[in-house]
Design a protein that fits this description.
single chain, about 525 residues, mainly beta, Immunoglobulin-like, five-stranded antiparallel sheet, four-stranded mixed sheet, 33 strands
């Protein structure tokens, strides 16, 4: 081969080698597109073993055949990176830190710059690595604003939202940070219809008065908040308690006291009193049995003074307002003018008690006021025998006289003493009863006195009252009830000679002497004469 030909061939080989080397740039890498690559890291990843990126440059970074040099350039995130040149890898470096994505200060991504230098030409190429930090569900929801307490009026309508402040903070992101709320277990009164909102809604009416005496008027609602992580087994949750305090509303009527049980409810009592006929008003409230006229608002925690207003509603006879007045604030009933018993023997009045702030809340009760006979009252304090009668009795020798006076009830229920035949012939008169066939044991000095004691108008039967006068001193015995069917008491006790007191005891010999039953238009009564 000619010398010139050899020179030409050598030159061509050098050129081809240069072209080949130029075509195979050692800093080229299929990983980087336009000099950038995007990677992803899980938060809380371990250091040194976590690969951020495999760079795969064409050249060799270490050893005898080294063609490139790799360096991690300065950046704000440089300290998070560890360059492994022989493997052409960028790994995570923590240096005591934790890669935490959560919260406002959490790390959302890491940015690195890797420079590749071709040793043969000193040419350099900068490639960017952007690593997104992925969220790990590592936080439970945290309730904000505890404790949760709310007053709720018992009259709150069903369907009302009664609590809106159940909120949480979950530092995780996306589904891991979204929270759902629910009531733990079954709830009779409350529900959370929108779990994503957490608002508590009333589903059944509340009842302040429905709590047991002494029981706290409140409900404790257990609330569970959990995130919505896709993997159900990885979901995290927290619990809290919402306290609903039930407050009293105006849903109860007025009640007169004392309560008269009528099944499951309280009825109003019958208030009973009396006035003496022809008595001038004393500006004093009447005294009633079984208790003073008094009513309360059963909604005790919403009542404010005066609270209750009293008034007359109706009554018999129709002119009852001419005789009585009622205090609108206290309910006290007073006599306005004297009453004549020959005109009216009793008053039946319906009274009303209503709330001062809600006239639809009221109750009624009946008041019965009897008119007592002023002559009948004198039986308590007056004697019946005149001096002439005393003189006549002394002739037959008197030490003690014993007699029964029977107190019976009229048809209107008021008590009265038995009357003589003359009284029955003249019903307008009222006089002390007299008796025949009185028996005396021996002669002595003293006045004969008959005394009668009144009894309650609601007594179940009539009573006989034994009384005796001895040497000017009148004493009385125990009440003796009459049989309500026969109106005759076979247990009338024979009173032995001597002083009779309330505590006297007698033998078992019974009185069977003169017994007379009487009937009249005013009622029935019994006279027993001993």
């Amino acid at each position: 081969m000619a010398e010139g030909t050899r020179i030409w061939l050598f030159t061509m080989l050098v050129v081809l080698q240069a072209v080949t080397l130029s075509a195979q740039n050692p800093c080229e890498s299929p990983v980087f597109t336009n000099g950038i690559v995007f990677e992803a890291l899980m938060e809380n990843s371990p250091e040194n073993t976590t690969i951020v990126a495999n760079m795969s440059f064409a050249g060799t970074a270490v050893g005898p055949g080294q063609t490139i040099e790799l360096t991690l350039q300065d950046s704000s995130d440089k300290d998070w990176g560890l360059l492994v040149e022989e493997l052409q890898q960028l790994r995570l470096r923590l240096a005591g830190k934790v890669l935490d994505r959560d919260g406002n200060t959490g790390i959302r991504d890491l940015r690195f710059v890797i420079r590749c230098k071709t040793i043969a030409t000193n040419a350099t190429v900068d490639n960017s690595i952007i690593a997104t930090v992925l969220d790990l569900n590592d936080n439970s929801p945290t309730f904000i604003g505890e404790p949760y307490n709310q007053d709720v009026l018992e009259l709150t309508p069903v369907g009302s939202t009664i609590f809106r402040r159940v909120t949480t903070d979950d530092l995780d992101s996306n589904e891991n940070g979204r929270v759902s709320y629910q009531i733990e277990g079954q709830s009779e009164y409350f529900e959370i219809p929108l779990p994503s909102e957490g608002d508590i809604v009333l589903k059944k009416s509340l009842d302040y008065e429905g709590f047991q005496p002494g029981e706290e008027k409140k409900y404790l609602i257990p609330i569970v908040a959990h995130d919505l992580a896709a993997n159900l087994s990885l979901r995290k949750s927290s619990t809290t308690t919402v306290t609903i305090i039930v407050t009293d509303g105006d849903d109860q009527a007025v009640q007169f006291l004392p309560c008269i049980p009528q099944g499951d409810i309280c009825g109003s009592p019958l208030y009973v009193s009396s006035v003496m006929e022809n008595t001038e008003p004393l500006n004093q409230p009447l005294t009633f049995d079984p208790a003073p006229v008094f009513a309360i608002d059963l909604d005790i925690d919403v009542q404010g003074p005066p609270g209750i207003v009293y008034s007359f509603l109706a009554g018999s006879p129709s002119d009852f307002r001419d005789y009585f007045d009622i205090n609108a604030v206290t309910g006290n009933i007073t006599l306005k003018r004297p009453v004549e018993r020959t005109q009216v023997e009793k008053f039946i009045i319906t009274i009303k008690a209503e709330q001062d702030d809600n006239l639809l809340r009221y109750a009624t009760a009946d008041v019965k006021i009897g008119v007592e006979d002023d002559d009948f009252n004198n039986l308590h304090i007056a004697g019946m025998a005149s001096l002439g009668a005393v003189a006549a009795l002394l002739l037959i020798g008197l030490v003690a006289a014993v007699t029964y006076i029977v107190v019976s009830k009229r048809k209107d229920g008021t008590p009265r003493a038995s009357k003589t035949a003359e009284d029955r012939r003249n019903p307008g008169t009222r006089s002390v009863p007299t008796f025949d066939n009185q028996a005396f044991d021996e002669v002595g000095n003293g006045n004969i006195t008959i005394q009668c004691q009144t009894i309650s108008a609601d007594t179940d039967s009539d009573y006989a009252v034994p009384v005796v006068e001895r040497n000017g001193h009148m004493e009385e015995g125990a009440y003796q009830p009459l049989d309500p069917k026969t109106r005759i008491n076979s247990d009338y006790q024979k009173l032995e000679r001597g002083t009779i007191t309330r505590d006297s005891t007698f033998d078992d010999t019974y009185y069977t002497d003169t017994i007379t039953n009487h009937l009249s238009d005013n009622g029935s009564y019994l006279e027993v004469i001993g």
